[in-house]
Each structure stands twice: as structure tokens, then as C-alpha cells.
């Protein structure tokens, strides 16, 4: 599963060049194209930039996505600069008045409004700026039957939630929106929902149908003819235990095509993050030491969860491949090379905390000091969610392969 370009670089880098993040941009391009091709042509695909906002990643995705979902003023500025001209949808809780003003100045195309107060702040900011038309999607905690979410890893809707608006609150927002009574600058263009993460394709389709049905009922009940957009969110599942079992985009695309037929005149939109970029990134490092304690083997790696916090936050084993380093030049010390063979080994980093574990008791044929370890699925929620400064180890190198 590791491509030869990533493997070659991983073995050519010296110990002092490690750890390194290696991004396989051709693999990202191929994956994004395959995802886009599996979706019906009318469905809009936004990329949730918070998953990985590195400019080469944003730019590689550009030909394959309709736009980008940004979740802060910082992301709005950053994505605007990295991919000028690409449509932006500004979501996220706790938008400040300053962020809203700046987003208006940047010409952000869609605002995903999360509360009644935010709607009022946005209206005020637009009036102050002399902007007479701002396109709004209300983020709604669309009610779902409890069995609809199945095995969701991170349920964000369907219960008490700091995100979005409950259906009752939506009623209170309508008078502030044009098309629903107000002559103010805010236009209600649609409904946005992001209810859960980690769903497989059938569960995603169930959730999408519930959101689209809810939007239709709202628009019929209140005669909202301009409510033409339904953003059903992201959260397409990935499987860290089985990197080769990917989200079934073909089944999802087919289901979304059927959903679009049932909702003529509405634009459906999705905004995945993780499932688009997770596979393109590798965190490559080397084994510094191997030791045994209490009868168990530990491999101490250069780097750790301050660079890739994903396994600590999600409490999983980060998938990895061992790249054996067999040249005699690798081991020049006058003592025996520390090694484990045919036994479970726990891969830890350099931090002084027992939480700095990347993978626990994983069976490996052989692992020796100096061998390289390439952690897979490090392209999303990896470097950018990590606490880099803890212990002041050097930062990793960053390599964006594009050949
Ligand atoms: C984080 C987030 C996404 C992307 O979620 P993934 O699990 O990365 O697909 C999309 N929309 C909203 C509102 C989010 O908060």
C-alpha cells in the first residue's frame, strides 16, 4: 500500500532528517478524482479544510472539488490565499464579530450560521459594510431516530449539542432572513447539517435523506422558495484498523443520485474532510531503541504523538509499515543491534508521558534499531491537531511528493 516514491524517500532520508511527513500528491489526486467520478454531477463536493489545510493539499484538490468549508477566520484567510477564487463556506461555532466582518470582506460565499445571535451579528456586520445580500445556510440539528446513526464514532446531532440550531430555534431565526419576512441583507439559501462522523455509506445515505426531507418540509411549511441548497455535511468513515477498506463512494454516489431525483430543484452538497485526505499522508520515522519491560517489547521511535496526535485522541493503533534498513552502514555501533523478532511490540515516541503510544502490542516479524517505520493514514487530523511544542523536540520535515 505504500507507494514506491514514498518508500524510496523514507529509506533515503537520514536519521537526522526524520521524522518526516511525506504527502503523496499523485495518490491524493487519483483518490479525489475517483471520489468525484463516483458522485452524481450535480452534487457539490466541498473539502473541510480543517482535516488538512496544507496549501499543496488544498491546491491538489482544487480541480476535483466545488469549494472549501472553513471553520474559522484563520482558515478563511488561509484557504482564500492558497486557492484564490474557490468558493468558501464558513462554518463552525463561536464565530466572533471580527471574524464575520473579515469573512464578509473576503467575500465568503456561504455562511453556515450556528445560532440566533450569530445571525444577528452577521446581519449587523453586513449592514455596517453596506453589503445587501449575504447567503446563509442555517445549521440545524435535524432530529434523527436513535437507530439511524448506527455506529457513529462522534455523534454531533440528534441530541443536546453545542453546534447548530435545534428545530425550535430555526423558527425564531426565520423572521431575520429575507424570503421569510425580513428585508435585511441575509438570504436563507439552505439548510446545513453535520450530524456525525465515521459513518459508512448506507448510514450516510440515511442521514442525508433525513436532512433533505427536513429541509423540504421547512421550505413547504413557510413557503421558502429560495431554500434551494442542502448541505448534508461530512463524516464519511475511514477504518484505521483496515486502511484498504475504504468508504464505498460508488454506493454513496448512487444513493445520492436517487436522493437528488426525489428533491428536484435542490442542490445537494457534501463536505468531507478525513475521507478525502487521510490516505495521502505518511509519518515516517526511525526506531531509536528497542527494550523489554515487564516481559513486553517496546520500540522507542524518533518523534511521537506531539507530531501525530491521532492515535492518542482516537485511542487506536496507527497503522504502519516497517521498512527494514539492511545495509551494514545502518548499524555501525560496536554493540549488538537492538531488535525484536516474532513478538508483539508497543511503538512509543520520545515524550515523557505514558500516553505517547502510536501502536500497542502489534505483532511484527522483526523490528530493529535503525529500521524505518512509516505510519499510514496520516494525511488528516494528524500534524495540525498535535501539540508540537511539548518537550521542544525538533519539528518533522515536510515533503510533498508530486512526480
Ligand atoms: C469537521 C467537519 C467536517 C468534516 O468532517 P470529516 O469527519 O473530516 O469528514 C464537515 N463539516 C463540519 C461542520 C465539520 O465540523
UniProtKB/TrEMBL annotation:
Q: What InterPro entries does its record include?
A: Ala_racemase/Decarboxylase_C (IPR009006), De-COase2_C (IPR022643), De-COase2_CS (IPR022657), De-COase2_N (IPR022644), Orn/DAP/Arg_de-COase (IPR000183), Orn_de-COase (IPR002433), PLP-binding_barrel (IPR029066)
Domain called Orn/DAP/Arg decarboxylase 2 N-terminal: residue spans: 28-277
Q: Report domain Orn/DAP/Arg decarboxylase 2 C-terminal positions.
A: 21-379
Under the heading SUPFAM superfamilies, the entry gives: Alanine racemase C-terminal domain-like (SSF50621), PLP-binding barrel (SSF51419)
Q: Which UniProt keywords apply?
A: Pyridoxal phosphate
Required cofactor(s): pyridoxal 5'-phosphate
Q: Belongs to which family?
A: Belongs to the Orn/Lys/Arg decarboxylase class-II family.
- Identify this protein by name: Type III PLP-dependent enzyme
What organism is listed for this UniProt entry? Streptomyces malaysiensis
Amino acid at each position: 500500500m505504500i507507494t514506491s516514491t514514498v518508500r524510496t524517500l523514507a529509506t533515503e532520508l537520514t536519521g537526522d532528517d526524520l521524522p518526516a511527513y511525506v504527502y503523496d500528491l499523485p495518490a491524493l489526486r487519483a483518490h479525489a478524482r475517483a471520489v468525484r467520478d463516483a458522485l452524481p454531477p450535480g452534487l457539490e463536493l466541498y473539502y473541510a479544510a480543517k482535516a488538512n489545510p496544507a496549501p499543496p493539499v488544498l491546491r491538489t484538490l482544487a480541480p476535483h472539488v466545488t469549494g472549501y468549508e472553513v471553520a474559522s477566520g484563520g482558515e478563511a484567510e488561509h484557504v482564500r490565499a492558497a486557492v484564490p477564487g474557490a468558493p468558501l463556506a464558513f462554518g463552525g461555532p463561536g464565530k466572533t464579530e471580527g471574524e464575520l466582518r473579515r469573512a464578509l470582506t473576503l467575500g465568503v460565499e456561504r455562511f453556515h450560521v450556528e445560532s440566533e445571535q450569530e445571525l444577528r451579528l452577521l446581519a449587523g456586520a453586513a449592514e455596517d459594510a453596506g453589503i445587501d445580500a449575504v447567503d446563509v445556510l442555517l445549521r440545524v440539528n435535524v432530529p434523527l431516530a436513535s437507530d439511524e446513526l448506527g455506529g457513529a464514532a462522534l455523534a454531533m446531532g440528534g441530541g443536546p449539542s453545542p453546534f447548530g440550531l435545534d428545530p425550535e430555534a430555526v423558527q425564531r431565526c426565520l423572521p431575520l432572513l429575507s424570503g421569510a419576512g425580513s428585508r435585511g441583507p441575509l438570504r436563507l439559501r439552505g439548510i446545513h447539517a453535520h450530524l456525525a462522523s465515521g459513518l459508512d455509506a448506507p448510514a450516510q445515505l440515511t442521514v442525508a435523506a433525513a436532512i433533505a426531507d427536513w429541509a423540504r418540509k421547512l421550505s413547504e411549511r413557510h413557503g421558502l422558495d429560495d431554500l434551494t441548497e442542502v448541505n448534508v455535511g461530512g463524516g464519511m468513515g475511514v477504518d484505521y484498523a483496515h486502511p484498504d477498506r475504504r468508504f464505498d463512494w460508488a454506493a454513496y454516489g448512487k444513493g445520492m443520485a436517487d436522493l437528488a431525483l426525489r428533491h428536484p430543484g435542490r442542490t445537494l452538497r457534501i463536505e468531507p474532510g478525513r475521507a478525502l485526505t487521510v490516505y495521502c499522508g505518511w509519518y515516517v520515522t526511525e526506531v531509536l531503541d528497542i527494550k523489554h519491560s515487564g516481559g513486553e517489547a517496546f520500540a522507542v521511535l524518533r518523534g511521537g504523538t506531539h507530531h501525530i496526535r491521532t492515535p492518542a485522541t482516537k485511542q487506536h493503533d496507527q497503522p504502519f509499515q516497517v521498512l527494514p534498513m539492511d545495509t551494514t552502514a545502518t548499524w555501525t555501533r560496536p554493540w549488538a543491534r537492538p531488535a525484536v523478532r516474532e513478538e508483539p511490540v508497543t511503538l512509543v515516541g520520545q515524550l515523557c508521558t505514558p500516553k505517547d503510544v502510536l501502536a500497542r502490542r502489534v505483532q511484527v516479524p522483526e523490528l530493529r534499531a535503525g529500521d524505518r517505520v512509516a505510519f499510514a493514514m496520516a494525511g488528516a487530523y494528524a500534524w495540525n491537531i498535535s501539540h508540537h511544542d511539548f518537550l521542544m523536540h525538533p519539528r518533522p520535515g515536510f515533503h510533498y511528493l508530486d512526480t
